[in-house]
Amino acid sequence: MLRCGIIGLPLAGKTTIFNVITRAGAEVKSYAGGKTDPNRAVVEVPDERFESLVDVYEPKKRVPATVEFVDLAGLSKDASKGAGLGNAFLSFVADSDALIHVIRCFDNPDVPHPEESVNPVRDWEIVEMELVFRDLGVIENRLGRLSEKKRLQQEEQKEKELLERCRSHLLEEKPLRELELKEEEEKALRGFSFLTFKPELIVLNCDETQTGEDSIPLYDRLNELASARGLRVVRIFGRMEMDLVDLDTESQRELMEELGIPEPGRERLISAAFDQLGLMCFFTVGKDEVRAWTLREGSTALEAAGTIHTDLARGFIRAQVVHYDDFRREGFSMARCRERGLLRLEGRDYVVTDGDILEIRFNV
Ligand SMILES: Nc1nc2c(ncn2[C@@H]2O[C@H](COP(=O)(O)OP(=O)(O)O)[C@@H](O)[C@H]2O)c(=O)[nH]1
Ligand SMILES: [Mg+2]
Predict the structure, then answer these.
(1) Cβ neighbours of residue 234 closer than 8 Å, sequence gap 6 or more
(2) CB 3.0-4.6 Å disulfide test: which of 124, 131, 288, 342 passes with 326?
(3) Over the stretch 234-289, which tens digit does the pLDDT of each residue have?
(4) Which homologous superfamily does the CATH classification assign to the domain defined by 298-362?
């Protein structure tokens, strides 16, 4: 299962946003604490296609796509140098597949800002820089170890050059995800779990009084930054929406409309996360079980098989594929899809698309 880590400065509203997303009711505090254990919760990804497949098959078991959200402790300035929870914290971040970066836009005199004023652009940069520094540290370590060797194997020489390229990129204060990489280079870097390589979604945590864009400090600058970095920004009224999580969506909507606040952010946030994080779904169907699986965009049939079970990847023969849209268009009939050649057999390198219905043929 994919894991999204929620990051940001202390008292930015990370736990609040975590509660909005997960309805888990974790404790929020108006002071920065020294807790290392992150809150975790698993959330269903809303998907109408999945619901239709369940209606068609009436399976014994339905398993929707899920994402795990992890509410990490606050990232302090200089965490990469060991401040705050420092490296313990950063290793939790390394464990996440993707990041949700909560930036504080609200002012609240009862909740002291760790940097003493509300400035979302500055806060964004502090956090970004900590991630950059940590990645640089990892690179320096590895390069140091490589330089101790008398002679480098060809592979190691390549690794060294690649890491040096990453280092100069990071020294320009740019995240690694912006570096153009060949596929094999990307693979070579995967094992390092670089933080600035992870997809990231920006969440602006606003107060219920900040319904207009001009009430958000530095809003234009924030948008410029986001588009320069190709990141999506979602605005959430954290505290307000947390207070509403126990209501159903309809009553929520009504209440928020009365208060002049745009639509509830929960589903918007989950789907934006899903998109920005480069995720997609494929389905497996049958009378026993209809299930949605989560995959990274660009994954192959073999990787899809491996998500279901390692045995399926090991003994992979072929994948039988039909796209959900075709299946629906043919009246949810596999027989008709087959007649029309919409049901295909694909090999291990087939790139799965969002909404594919797969059946893996395997032999172990
Ligand atoms: N006024 C206001 N306060 C908020 C908002 N979001 C969070 N807070 C408060 O800020 C404090 C810290 O929130 P929390 O979610 O625990 O922050 P974290 O340290 O980033 O996890 C709590 O007292 C929240 O009630 C908001 O949108 N508006
Ligand atoms: Mg918290």
Answers:
(1) 201, 202, 203, 204, 265, 268, 269, 272
(2) 342
(3) 999 999 888 888 888 788 888 888 877 776 778 788 888 888 778 899 999 999 99
(4) Beta-grasp domain (3.10.20.30)
